Amino acid sequence: MTMKRLAKGAIALMTVGSLILSSACGASTGANHASGNAAANNQSSNEAELGQLDPANPTKVTFYSYSLAYPTMKAGMEQLIKEFNDTVGKEKGVIVEGVPDATFQQYKVDISAGKEVDVVQHTFNLLDSSRLGLGFKAYEDVFPKAELDEHLKGISPNALELGKIDGKMYGLAFTFSTPIVFINGKLFQEAGLDPANPPKTWDDVKKASLQIKEKTGKDGFGLSPSNGWVTEGVILSNGGRVLSEDRSKAEFANKESVDAISMWKDLYMNGASAKGTDNELAEQFMAGNLGMYVSSTSLYSGIKKASEAGGWQVYGGALPQFGDKPSIPVNSGSVLAVRPDTPTKNAAVWEFIKFVTGDRGYTIITSQIGYLPLRTGLADDPNGLKDFVEQNPLYKINLEQLSRIQPVAIWPGDSATEMVTAFTDAVVKSVSTDANVEQTLKQAQDQINSMMP
Q1: Which of 221, 267, 373, 394 is 20 to 30 A (C-alpha) from 299?
Q2: What is the pLDDT of residue 73?
Q3: Residues 6+ apart with CB under 8 A from 6
Q4: Burial track 223-235 (b if 16+ CB lie within 10 A, e otherwise)
C-alpha cells in the first residue's frame, strides 16, 4: 500500500492542535455555554434513541475535519468519506458532507451561528471546554449501550479511555499516534552506533547524541520544548503527573516531574541537541542533518521519502525510559466528538462513526493518512494491514506502545486554552533557558490551579 501522508504540514498540525486553539475556544461566551447546555437538556428525553433512516430521503451529516484542510492528509480523508457515502451511506440513507477546518475554529464559528455541526475531528486537550460550551454530547447519551459496546470490541482498551471525561466518552479516539524516536541510520553508523539497537534510556540518548556530534558534526537529538504532547510522556515516564486523576488540579511541579524536565534541560543544553520548532527540527532531520528526532508516525511517509532521496535509511525506537522504569507514552491526534440533535441524526451519525472507526475505516486511516490502527488486530489481518505493517515495521513500535499509553491531558473547564498556554510556556522556559526548573514549574502550576473550575 502507498501512504499519502504528511511531512512538514503535519508537524505544524500537531503544534497547532495543541497550542493555537486559542481565541475561539477561550472566547466561548456565556450565551454559547447556555445554548449548548440547553440543547443537551432538550434532548434528554431522546437519549440513546436511534431514529429511522430513509435511503430515499438521506439524512445529511456535517463532518468538520482538520485533515481535510491539509494536502498530505486530504486524499485519505476524502477517500474515507467517499467510501462511506458510496456504501453504507447509500444503503442506509446518510450523506456525509466534509467541512475542512484548518485552524480548528470553523466548527465553533458555525455552532455560534446556529448551523448544524454534527461530528468534529477534535483535539484532545480542549475537549472539556467544547463539552461545556458547545453542546457536544457523551456517546453513552446518544447511542444505545448494546450497539456501542458491540462496536467498541476490538479497539485497544487503552485507546477507549483517551476521550473520557468524568467516566463518559465525549470523544472516541480517531486519528492518533504515540511518540517515536526516528533515527538516521547513516549518522548512527558514522558515529559507531547501531541504528538497529536504538537508545533505550534517556541516559543512552544523551550518550548517543554526544557521540554523533563528536563523530559527524551533526546534531544528535531533537525534541522541541513546545512540541505540545510528547512532554507529557516524558513527565509520566518518570512517575510524575500533569493533572490529578480527577482533573481538579495541576500537579506537574512535584519532584518526579521536576526531575524529568531537568533531565530534558540537561539534554537540550549539552551542545548536541538541535534547537528550533517542530517544523524546523523535522526539516533538519529530513535533510539528513539530525541523528534522532521524536515525533509522530504520521510523519513517517515524508521521512521515509526524504531518507530514500538522501541515500540513508530511517530506523525507529520507542519513547526512551528513565532507568529501568518502562516509558509511558501519551497520544497525539484527535477524537470524534458528536452533537446530533434528533433521534434520526443520532442514527445517521452512528452509521458514520461505525464505518470510520471500523475495520475498513482504520485500514484507510493507517495506510493512507498514517495514524495508528486502533483496531490492533488489523496489523495481523491479511485482508487488513498485515502487508503494510510488514513493509513498514516502525509501526510495530507504535502498536506495542499502546499497551502502556496514558491519555494526554484534557484540561478542565472554560479556561483550558489559558491552562495549556501556561503549562507549555513553563516547559519551554524550563528547558531552553537558565531559569530554575522547580520554581518555573511551581509558578505555572499555581497559576493554573487558580484558574481551575
Answers
A1: 267
A2: 84
A3: 13, 70, 72, 73, 298, 299, 301, 302, 370
A4: bbbbbbbbbbbbb
C-alpha distances out from residue 48 to 94, 165, 195, 342, Å: 19, 18, 51, 10
**Among 28-32, 106-110, 292-296, which is the least confidently predicted range?**
28-32
Distance (Å, whole) CA 110 – CA 24: 11
Chain mean pLDDT for the chain: 88
Question: What pLDDT does residue 202 have?
Answer: 98
Closest CA to 360 of 98, 163, 147, 88: 88
The one-letter amino acid code at 251 reads: E
The pTM for the full model equals 0.81
The C-alpha cell 504515540 sits at 178
DSSP H helices in 165-251: 185-190, 202-216, 230-237
Q: Tell me how far apart the alpha carbons of residues 204 and 15 are, in angstroms, rounded to a whole number.
A: 27
- Would you give the distance in Å from CA 397 to the centre of its chain? 16
CA distance 27 to 29: 6
Dist. CA 345–CA 338, nearest whole Å = 10
Q: What are the grid coordinates assigned to 58, written together?
A: 438521506
The candidate with the shortest Cα–Cα distance to 263, out of 430, 444, 445, is 430
DSSP secondary-structure letter at 89? Answer: I
Residue 270 in grid coordinates? 549539552
Helix or strand holding residue 222 (H, E)? strand 219-222
